Backbone:
């Protein structure tokens, strides 16, 4: 339990002179549920495992015994699968993208469900707002990107693909090579992870902020009106988060496919 | 500054927690493993089968359509051929009829000619016979008459015949004379 919830539950309101329990980084730190040999198992990890089970469970139920005439669940699964296979893999990578559909589908649904946990009662925390989870996925995308780059173009061609731009004036070539290297090898995976993390972090922070404020301001005074406004904002942010959760999962998957496409294409 | 950061490591949200990283990777590998190895190939196969079924159905329908069209064409061709055949037979019959009529006509003509010729021959023969009979009759009558006139029976055949011949010769000579005078 984080500090602010403890304070909120203890009934700290605006007139109690206990100070506003502003949510901060402490909102993202959890006490371990249990520890094995000094390794703490926390709520975000539990959520990640639950999300894994949800994704696998859903697709198992939908696709384990696929029928030519699909049932409702299979139809929903097919819509999801086709969304990745057609709108992302085919659209961005082309025919060669068919091989990467399982990878992209896994990324999309795993990330999306982890994001959705932000607004699921009792969970109410997006696992992706813990930096390690976006990093893990971005790392896999980066490894795939590098592997495909060197596999497709060989060592020399791969390096060229990563740093070289055709038709540059000689004097600025070293600078561009440096910038391209930084962009493709360092910034890309970093921003990929940070983009997802920061969005989910900020979204969760906003919801917590308005929720805590609503509780804190809820006193038999004029402040109750502001508490109501804060509650409405919390509800509005929750609805908005639904969109953001999908969008960030989509962007993450889209960028992954763009990197794969960049690794596969001829020249730069 | 460094010591400050170090002490605040737990609070730095951009330092990924190692356990979380491992848990995240494991969870993703399980998702990727199950989806990539079993479930998505499953559904991919099913989608392809479905497309095959739909396209196969369309193909079968097209085939049936083509079959029907071909049968219709064959039927039409046969019908046209039958009509043609019928027309040919009619034409042939008409030609044969015309030939038969022509032959019949020719035959009729021939028979008529034959009959006419036979008639002519008969008439000629009759005429000859009549001439001979007439000659004899005329001779007999003339002789008879002459016998009565002369009162002498000219019964002697040889004489009779001689007299008749002379008479007829005279007649002929006279006729020749008249003819020669006329020409």
Residues:
């Amino acid at each position: 339990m984080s500090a602010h919830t403890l304070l909120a539950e203890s009934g700290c309101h605006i007139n109690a002179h206990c100070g506003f329990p502003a949510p901060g980084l402490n909102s993202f730190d959890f006490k371990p549920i249990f520890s094995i040999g000094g390794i703490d198992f926390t709520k975000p990890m539990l959520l990640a495992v639950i999300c894994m089970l949800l994704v696998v469970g859903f697709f198992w139920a939908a696709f384990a015994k696929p029928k030519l005439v699909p049932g409702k669940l299979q139809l929903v699964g097919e819509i999801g699968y086709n969304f990745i296979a057609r709108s992302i893999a085919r659209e961005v990578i082309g025919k060669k993208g068919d091989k990467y559909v399982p990878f992209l589908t896994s990324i999309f649904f795993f990330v999306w469900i982890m994001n959705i946990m932000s607004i699921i009662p009792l969970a109410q925390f997006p696992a992706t707002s813990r930096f390690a989870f976006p990093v893990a996925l971005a790392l896999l995308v980066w490894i795939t990107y590098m592997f495909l780059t060197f596999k497709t173009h060989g060592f020399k061609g791969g390096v060229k693909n990563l740093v070289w731009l055709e038709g540059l004036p000689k004097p600025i070539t070293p600078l561009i090579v440096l910038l391209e290297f930084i962009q493709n090898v360092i910034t890309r995976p970093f921003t990929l992870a940070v983009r997802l993390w920061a969005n989910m972090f900020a979204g969760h922070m906003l919801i917590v902020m308005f929720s805590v404020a609503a509780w804190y301001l809820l006193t038999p005074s004029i402040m109750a009106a502001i508490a109501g406004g804060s509650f409405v904002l919390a509800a509005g942010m929750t609805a908005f988060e639904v969109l953001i959760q999908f969008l960030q999962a989509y962007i993450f998957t889209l960028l992954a496919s763009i990197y794969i496409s960049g690794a596969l294409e001829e020249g730069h | 500054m460094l010591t400050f950061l170090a002490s605040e490591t737990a609070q730095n949200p951009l330092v990924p927690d190692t356990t979380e990283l491992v848990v995240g990777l494991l969870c993703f590998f399980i998702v990727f493993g199950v989806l990539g190895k079993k479930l998505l190939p499953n559904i991919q196969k099913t989608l392809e089968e479905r497309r095959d079924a739909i396209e196969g159905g369309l193909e079968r329908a097209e085939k049936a359509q083509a079959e029907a069209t071909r049968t219709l064409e064959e039927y039409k061709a046969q019908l046209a051929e039958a009509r043609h055949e019928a027309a040919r037979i009619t034409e042939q019959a008409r030609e044969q009829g015309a030939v038969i009529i022509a032959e019949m006509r020719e035959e009729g003509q021939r028979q008529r000619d034959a009959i006419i010729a036979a008639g002519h021959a008969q008439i000629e023969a009759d005429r000859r016979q009549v001439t001979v009979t007439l000659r004899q009759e005329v001779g007999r009558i003339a002789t008879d008459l002459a016998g009565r006139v002369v009162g002498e029976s000219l019964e002697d055949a040889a004489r009779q015949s001689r007299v008749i011949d002379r008479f007829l010769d005279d007649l002929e000579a006279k006729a020749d004379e008249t003819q020669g005078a006329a020409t």
Residues 26-152 of chain B form one domain.
